[in-house]
């Protein structure tokens, strides 16, 4: 990451309204030790597609908390998955819910149960792989981040969500769909910063002002 990108995330962690700060990171990247150091008194959890990396780094850093997840999506399926999520917006893919009990195709529901009860203050989406049509892509982490932020139960009701590699289509389109342009704080280099407020349980859409038309699967 660039200096500006690191500084932007560090600022959000330093200004975290809750003590300790809850920081969820999708992607076990070279910056993982920095994230832990910046959130020294808080809880930092890493989610990665590679079980070997999680086990390897946990052995070397016993204080690291990480979990592997099996993604069932592919970058080439983005349009189809967004269309499916819109069709299930009032049911399995609603913006406020406990994803542990959801069958939404974009929802990550196989994490440890207690992670769904945490009020996350900062979420960084920097994984999984998204550089080829067959890669898992970041559709599910972005959707999941959007739901976790809107389902927050306590604190100031706002979650700072950062999406890296925002120049790519999946990251940009899914952020527009599930994090929303109205919540975009800033975008520079390859990083976008969203501030997402929690919603009532009966919320019917992710965005107040949808910026993209219904995506065809064709």
UniProtKB/TrEMBL annotation:
Annotated localization: Golgi apparatus membrane
Gene Ontology CC annotations of this record: Golgi membrane
Record keyword Transmembrane present: yes
InterPro entries: IRX15/GXM/AGM
Pfam families per the UniProt record, alphabetical: IRX15_IRX15L_GXM (PF21729)
Keyword vocabulary terms for this entry: Membrane, Transmembrane, Transmembrane helix
Name this polypeptide is given: Polysaccharide biosynthesis domain-containing protein
Source organism: Protea cynaroides
């Amino acid at each position: 990451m660039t200096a500006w990108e690191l500084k932007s995330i560090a600022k959000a962690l330093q200004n975290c309204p809750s003590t300790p700060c809850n920081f969820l990171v999708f992607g076990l990247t070279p910056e993982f030790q920095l994230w832990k150091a910046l959130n020294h008194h808080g809880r930092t959890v890493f989610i990665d597609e590679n079980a070997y990396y999680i086990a390897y780094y946990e052995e070397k850093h016993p204080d690291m908390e990480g979990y592997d997840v099996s993604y069932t999506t592919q970058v080439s399926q983005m349009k189809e998955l967004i269309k499916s999520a819109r069709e299930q917006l009032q049911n399995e893919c609603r913006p406020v819910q406990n994803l542990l009990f959801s069958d939404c195709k974009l929802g990550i529901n196989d994490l440890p149960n207690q992670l769904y009860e945490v009020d996350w203050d900062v979420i960084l989406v920097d994984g999984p792989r998204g550089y080829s049509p067959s890669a898992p892509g970041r559709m599910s982490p972005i959707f999941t981040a959007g739901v976790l932020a809107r389902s927050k139960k306590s604190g100031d009701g706002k979650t700072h969500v950062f999406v890296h590699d925002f120049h790519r289509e999946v990251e940009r389109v899914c952020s527009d769909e599930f994090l929303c342009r109205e919540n975009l704080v800033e975008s520079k280099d390859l990083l976008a910063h969203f501030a997402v407020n929690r919603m009532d349980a009966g919320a019917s859409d992710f965005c107040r002002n949808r910026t993209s038309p219904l995506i065809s699967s064709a």
